[in-house]
Amino acid sequence: MKRWLTVLALGLCEVAVLASPADAIPPFARRYRVSCQLCHSPVPRLNEFGEQFAANGFMFAPGEEPRDTIATGDPLLDLAATFPIGLRIDAYTQALTEVQDETRVDFQIPYGIKLFSSGLITKNISYYLYFFLSERGEVAGLEDAYVQFSDLGGSGVSLIAGQFQVSDPLFKRELRLEFEDYQVYRVRVGDTRADLTYDRGLMALYSPWSGGDLSVQVVTGRGLDPTGQNRQFDRDPWKNFALRYSQDVGPLRLGVFGLIGREEADGVENDFTVFGPDATLQLARTLELNAQYLRRSDDDPFFGLAGEPVDTDVDGGFAELIWSPAFANSRWYFTGLVNWIESDAPVFTIRQGEDAPLDSYRTVALGANYVLRRNLRLLFEPQYDLDRERARLTLGFTAAF
Prior knowledge:
By secondary structure, the protein is mostly beta strands. The protein has 3 helices and 20 strands. The relative contact order is 0.15.
């Protein structure tokens, strides 16, 4: 108990020292001269207006003319007067039980420093990118980096080209409040590279009617690997295809997702599918429930390696509860996140330091978030791993300016 009280005290000291009020605001809010609260509840989680703002290509209204441009006299050039840029910092203190039979305190200050930019290239064409100056102590480079073509030819279809997360049409990992991840999106099976996180390719978005959203993706399936010696990103001739449709039904939003893919290594092919439903239920004005289930099936994830499983299935998902006692005016946000992943053999990894492939991953995390400033959020999150029987306590903050 004394050890945990010491950890708590250290974490609170860290927050008190590092969480000084910030005067600057991120580039979107700076461009329109509005509060971050207009799009976030709280940062980085998007509210309904923020989701529509992103769907519009980071514009208040579809097709609006670029703002704050320089009068160059060239009708074919919309040149911004200033280059939009922002910074996000995440920092934590963690206590972990039974790491090599010891309880440890780890200062993760900073855990991530992200430089991001977004703006209009011209009417209906925008860009978004961020660069990790530091992620877990290393320069991670570009993750999200894409150009968005909105309302192509007046069709209502938007096209995104570049790097993005395959799971973005479901629940966006980058916008979650918890330190604990939506782990089912990180699952890789055997030696296959494909998962539902970052990849390169194309994504088309369309809303055929009110409350309905459709997305179609084609991606390389290699993640963000660098090019080979032939200067090509893809290592085989195959692409992965994903489809997701969702529909609002009163306070309930129902979705279904499917992906088919193939990966080849040393002349051996692995065909795989990912399929499952998702849902968001507004239980009350202040209470939201999110849920995801996915089944992944691979026919040869170890590419013919002798003694390794074939025809594997991995089932997983998560349930997330978010409570904002004062709705949009809340300064406190409380979360609960349950992760559950199981397979018929030890074949999957979530790439978080596992010594060997897993056949089960089950965790429970409870969180309390306090909005100190609109662009500065404090976090307290205990988590328990049911399979490894160990606990983790995380204290920290997220700031953007």
